[in-house]
Amino acid sequence: MTQKTFNVAVVGATGAVGREMLRVLEEREFPIGELRAMASSRSAGKTIEACGREVVVEDLESADFSGVDYALFSAGGSVSKAHGPRAAQAGAVVIDNTSAFRMDPDVPLVVPEVNPEAIEEHKGIIANPNCSTIQMVVALLPLAQNYGLKRVVVSTYQSASGAGQSGVTELLEGARAYLSGEQEPTPSTFAHPLAFEALPHIDTFDPNGYTREELKMVRETRKILSDPDLQVSATCVRVPVVRSHSEAVTVDLGRAVDVDEVRKLWQEMPGVELVDDPEHVEYPLARRAEGADPCFVGRIRRDLDRPETLHFWVVSDNLRKGAALNAVQIAQFMVEEDL
Ligand code: 25A
Ligand code: L14
Question: Tens of pLDDT along 81-135?
Fold first, then answer.
């Protein structure tokens, strides 16, 4: 019997996330029929190699989505707003990695290990959450199910690749200039030079003093966990790491924490890998998470004063679980469940 295949389009195929999407599709042997790559006119006509074939990049502006089964978008929010709906109208299931549709009540916001059931509600567009939110909710789910969540406080340490390829280039060029004592280039992706710095500023500021990135973590967490009143507060910080986001999370739970039990819950949670052996100086690290699929959890501690409060550290590759992998997992789930 020949396996059923699906036509897939990757929008933003030349970017940091798009290239990772192509890599994950190939690694996971997604049953691709026709593969199409789309980006801006800057990249149109270039050839990229992916999934054992050569694909010519199409200009998204003039690309026709008829016949596409899955369209994976990662070319920025405004691009998704302009082209996502027409791709869905042409019959594609749009899996969108940008912030464009995440809070739209008609659009499911999905992490397959956490709320796969939401996929069935889709009307043509499914949203991939923000990278920082994804790795946190994967770790929170078993705590929510077994203890109940009262309050979540998170501080993030986010890598430069969160801002795409241009963020990585800016960090590396800035670091090189700093080390050689040259004049540092004027930053354009980040508000200040990122090399040897910690910037408490990701995305734009809202009038209430929070950044958009922080508010995404609050709102998206509530939506994914179907807990609209959950107390969540975030401080999002950009650090001079190339890839993988780290997070220090504090959770107030519904009853006193049993750390051994919590460890066991995480051992059984799909998508989580425990790295928690302080005696042997083992804990999750951004550079070790690079290119890997799991959300790595460690530094697990019960609060010294509050028995119902737990602290932990979670690290994951923002371009993989935070973006490309999660999007491909959604498509895979739909293929496997025949949705
Ligand atoms: O709005 P958001 O949701 O906040 O997202 C903003 C950006 O964040 C990244 C992603 O950037 C996104 O564009 N991003 C989003 N979610 C992310 C996540 N979870 C995330 N990053 C990490 N984790 P990116 O760099 O990864 O990808 C950008 C891709 O989008 C294509 N694109 C941009 N504008 C487009 C468009 N496609 C269609 N129509 C448009 N209007 C972009 O394609 C890329 O694939 P490209 O053609 O611009 O090609 C990129 C190549 O061209 C070079 N280049 C880039 N800018 C310029 C340029 N060359 C000359 N001049 C330029 N101005 C690059 O070097 C690259 O090779
Ligand atoms: O909302 O710059 O998906 O680290 C993901 C990357 C927002 C910005 C999103 C970053 C983007 C974020």
Answer: 999 999 999 999 999 999 999 999 999 999 999 999 999 999 999 999 999 999 9
79 touches ligand 1 (CB under 6 Å): yes
In sequence order, the β-bridge partners of residue 38 are 11, 58
Using DSSP, state whether 228 is helix, strand or coil: coil
| Nearest CA, atom 40, ligand 1 | 40
The pTM score is 0.94
Q: Which amino acid is at 203?
A: D
Q: How is the chain split into domains, by residue range?
A: 6-128+323-337, 133-318
pLDDT at residue 297 greater than cutoff 60: yes
Q: Is 332 in the pocket of ligand 1 (CB under 6 A)?
A: no
Per-residue model confidence as pLDDT tens digits over 130-174: 999 999 999 999 999 999 999 999 999 999 999 999 999 999 999
Distance CA(262)–CA(270), nearest Å, equals: 14
Residue 225: name the closest of 155, 286, 134, 312 by CA. 134
Question: Quick check: is 131 catalytic?
Answer: yes
CATH fourth-level superfamily of 133-318: Dihydrodipicolinate Reductase; domain 2 (3.30.360.10)
Select from 3.40.50.720, 3.40.47.10, 3.40.50.300, 3.40.50.920 the CATH code of 6-128+323-337: 3.40.50.720
Ligand 1 centroid from CA 82, angstroms? 15
